[in-house]
């Protein structure tokens, strides 16, 4: 890997990020959305999320290969120190340490904001299959998250029911 850069997102990243994400929407159960957002919708989401929380992309040799962001868990005031985290990499760039780098930078930014609790939801099925691996669960465990909830058969996609596991990391 020649040059890896992690930087803040801009709305001009919408096209590339929607390309990365649409694979997970259309071909996998990683995302519980059925329809991939258009570039325009992605632009709107970037604007809304990055106005409040860190939203970062990773570039390798000038090409965006993944992104990460934090989002509100709930609008109720008592949750002000709790966020959700989301991360998606181009499927050709897994297991190269990019996810770790993005999550570490995200955490650094969230600590500075005074955020304490990170929550990540991961689709889950007992046996890995054509639409879902255990990558997200294993990744989150490696990144210091603990499983705190296991909701059974809450998402239906491709005519199959999927569980959702929630992982939590408490920033010291
Ligand atoms: C989950 C995802 C972000 C992981 O990113 P990645 O770049 O492949 O992960 P990394 O290479 O940085 O791995 C970080 C650590 O997790 C471990 N890890 C990652 N995937 C793993 C797996 N499937 N099984 C076991 N360990 C795994 C690595 O070994 C590494 O450990 P180490 O740093 O102690 O050596 C990536 O697979 C992805 O984009 N998946 C599809 C989208 C998704 O599932 N997003 C999460 C839902 S919000």
Strand order of the largest sheet: 1-2-3-4-5-7-6
State mean pLDDT (0 to 100 scale): 97
N/C terminus separation: 32 Å
Name the shape in a single word.
globular
CATH hierarchy class name: Alpha Beta
Structure annotation, total helices: 4
Strand content: 25-35%
CATH topology: Aminopeptidase
Count of β-strands: 7
Which homologous superfamily in CATH is the superfamily? Gcn5-related N-acetyltransferase (GNAT)
Q: Kindly give the count of domains.
A: 1
Low-confidence stretches: none
- Rg from alpha-carbon coordinates: 16 Å
Short description:
The protein is α+β, with helices and mostly antiparallel strands.
Question: How does this structure look, described?
Answer:
The protein has four helices and seven strands, in the order βααβββαβαββ. The model has no long low-confidence stretch (mean pLDDT 97). The protein is an alpha+beta fold and 172 residues long. The radius of gyration is 16 Å and the shape is globular. The structure holds coenzyme A. The site of coenzyme A has 21 residues, from β4, α3, β5 and α4.
What structural keywords apply?
binds coenzyme A, 28% helix, alpha+beta, single chain, 7-stranded mixed sheet, Aminopeptidase, 4 helices, 172 residues
